[in-house]
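Entry:
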Amino acid sequence: MTVEAKICGVATPEALAAAVEGGAQFVGFVFYPPSPRHLALETARGLALATAAGVQKVGLFVDAADAEMAAVCEAVPLDLLQLHGEETPARVAAVRARFGLPVMKAIRLGAAEDVAKAAAYSDVADRLLFDARGPAGSLPGGRGQAFEWKWLLGHDGPLPWMLSGGLNASNVAMAVRQSGARAVDVSSGVEDKPGHKDPKRIAEFLSALAAL
């Protein structure tokens, strides 16, 4: 079974090389100042330009204003915009129209019934990402927190989706089996400290996926 992978929070040439060489289909660049993975525009541009053809470059934003997103999109060649905040369906549609790029909307899950929230985005997003909902005041992603993967088993919405939250090389195979995911997203699970990707852990994660 082929399961696509996104390595999110890439911030160094070494992490980018490990992701690409390991077969990741997506690499994520974070544009959210409170995150330890936040990138300066110049750094992000350099990494994006160095990304091999065929690997999608994803820009992650959290409830960002148009001006902030425009500055990033003008400087950094992106293929996909990831909205990881509380963006409404109307906001997702507006971003998609304004920037002319596909949009992936994150749906944060705290209970099984939260999966139903995805339906509101069916006509305005191109992809979905399911992540764990953290406690109030916590970062919206990259916390290493998982949810019950079985909540997604059998999810048959019209949009392709990724599984995120608490994944690492040792549990990703189980997560895929329990959720039915055909694409996964990892960030803190391949770090040796917050915000720093470990090329060895990236390689191990992608090898575990390739073995499925």
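The mean pLDDT is 94.
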